[in-house]
Amino acid sequence: MSLGYVIRRLLGAIPLLLGISLILFTIIHLAPGGPLDMYLENPAVSKEALDQIARAYGLDQPVPVQYFLWLKSMLVGDWGYSIRTGRPVLTEIVLRLGPTLELGGLSLLISLALAIPLGIISASRRGSKLDTTVTLASFAGISIPVFWMALLLQLFFSVQLGWLPSAGYKSIGGGDFLDRLSHIVMPAAVLSLATIASWSRFIRSGMVDVLNQDYIRTAYAKGRSERAVVVLHALRNAMIPAVTVIAVDFGTVISGAVITETVFAWPGIGRLFMESMDGRDYPMLMGLMMMGSLGIILANIVADLAYAALDPRIRYG
Amino acid sequence: MTFKLTRRAALQGMLAGGVAMTAFRAFPAYAQAPGGTLTVGLTYEIDTMNVYSTGFLGDAQAAVVEGLLAPGSDAKYVPVLATEVPTLENGGIVVAEDGKTMKITYKLREGVKWHDGEPFTSADVKYTWEAVKDPAFIAESKDGTEEVESIETPDDLTVIVNYNTILPTFASTLFTFGILPKHVLEGTDLNTSTYNETPIGTGPFKVTEFVRGQYVVTERFDEYWDKAENGDQLPYLDSIIFKMIPDTNTLITQLRSGEVTMVVSTPYSQASQVEGIDGIEIVKGPLLSWQHLDFNFKNPTLADLEVRKAIAMGIDRNVLIRAQGGFPEAIKSPVVPVFEWYDAETPEIAYDVEGAKAALDAAGYVAGSDGIREKDGNRLSYQFMVQAGRADDELAQQVIIAQLKAIGIEATANNQTGVAYREARYNGGYDLIYGRWITSADPVYSVFWGTGGANNGQSYSNPKLDEAFAKFENSLDTAVRMEAAKEFQTILAEDLPSIPLTTNVALIAKTAKLKDFVPNPTNMTNFVHTAEWYMEG
């Protein structure tokens, strides 16, 4: 893996981001409504006042002009100001990034810790009761809507048992490790559920493919134990297809989990996105979506590099 | 749901009986005692604690920051930091001899302290005007700053505001929103000040913690100026916590688990769930907002009073109300019944399909082969606009379309959003439009139906109505205003530029232990009078 390759990929991301920004800008302006809608019910806000606010934020310009103005400031590192809070977009994002990384990071760790063993066991005991159970559970995990799962957990652990707080980042006046842990458990569990389910499926199918290869039979023939064959010979190759999915999921961590964060009142990026969407806060939305896109592009580059690391036959030059 | 409500109503009846019996005892069942924490769940994120720049109605702000006056539960102003509401009668308002300008004198309350212990004085009032007027300060509302010519502060407890015009709505502007502390803010940049998170106010509660996106903690201000009637130091509550929970399902779960004990805006659709939670009760509070159907007078058939009358007769408000969970209430005047200006004798047009058909027949509108009426080649077929994407409004629109069809009038949904909606609404890009308006506690109606009114996109003009509005809006004399209000409500009901349909209500869910809570209908929120709320037991 050469440094030159990485630099070329990063340079290639620039036109990609430009294209993405153009598409996103067009789409959010196509959506019904605008940032000034919240004033429409109140007659005390006259048309003149609305026009004035629109001018202040450049909303009176044609959309293409607005796009170029946005792009121009973005190129010099000015992310603009949120229409909803009046604070700089970047300040707002940085403030929300911490909780999002905590939640996303924890849920990815849980997912990795559970999905890999589940996938391996499921593949190596193909057709067994265990495999069937894991497969069924995975499909259930993928199918259950996040908000519903969240509601079930909240009703059980917060209302029935009273063990865990139903939402929030920390208690008022609290915030020590245990308090934070009690708040993050449910959202992290909900968020992990779908990832565990999908990752374990990918690892299982990768594993099933590899376990049928000749070199695995050779390894068995050499008299190696099953554990050694699976972990040392098979796993590495089986991971290649799964790496793409895992890497992209890592990339999406910084764009936050919109529904989970909203349901659990988690003060992260996803909830900020939801609220900005409600208020049609264009500068904020653009900032958030560009950051999310960047995350996914970077994750893809990392995934490609990981292929080469996992499989020496893959070379980039 | 109906069963549950009925059962609850029966229970409440029994409770009322019980209360009547306790009244015979020598001691009250519950004494007001200090203590207790109220945890309020808000569905929006508090953007700033500065009352002049927040984009929301300012729930948390109202418990912390006080103005000279505040609207009470009947939308009438009561004195807060001033000792009385200035009027012509008490000499607080003096109109210049030429009748073009006025001067308002506020006597300030003595012994009021800011949360940092400094005394509150007339200099703070003057500073508030200067700070909000400053063009560098980005504010959502600068209402009332331009009409003030100058402010005199002859002593610490007297403020004389010289207006460059007559402004009968002075009470719903500037000094009512809140007073800013001069000693803290002078010389700072209000746009970026820490005041926006931890404001210094004079209110019964002070902010002790502001965590963006999570919660705001307010605690009892021990040196608050007000005492209860029995001499108790106010406020009673130890603390009010405002938690920001964007998802309404989670909010209801938190009510269930006791993590929040008050929700001020329960969605109509979730009221029945909340009704079933032990220890939580729903208080139905009136609001100054109403739903209405308006006509564009550029359309020749809609300029015909007979057609407007038939449409008014053709609409069954009960169906509209049922479609919204049964909570809004039918109205006949745009002046909602909370106001003293409301005239109960406003003529009412009852729902009467046959009457509507007969009226249209008599006016010469005859049904064509498709069932749609027409006269002289003008079909009664209209473009009907609501703001696209607002589910409640789109539902109401469908109800109205069906009801119009029954009397031979065709309406086609043509919904817009954003700039397109705004342009259409202000410039009359519709035949029929359905929407909601809200007024302040000092309502002004000429903006809607006055000739050339800022929100009059209907091209409606009626000199007699303009005259009544002018009398209402330019007089400081209550008797004159009452008379004028009656007059314009009658004209509106007879000439029908707009059909007032229903008011909206606030559904406030709160712990039954919280006593002396009184909902506030105005856009100053329920938290303007928190000092006397107390927790039982």
From TrEMBL, chain A:
Subcellular location: Cell membrane
Pfam family, one: BPD_transp_1
PROSITE patterns: ABC_TM1
Gene Ontology biological process terms, A to Z: transmembrane transport
Assigned GO CC terms: plasma membrane
SUPFAM superfamilies given in the database record: MetI-like
InterPro entries, per the entry: BPD_transp_1_N (IPR045621), MetI-like (IPR000515), MetI-like_sf (IPR035906)
Stored PANTHER family: DIPEPTIDE TRANSPORT SYSTEM PERMEASE PROTEIN DPPB-RELATED
The name this protein goes by in its record: Diguanylate cyclase
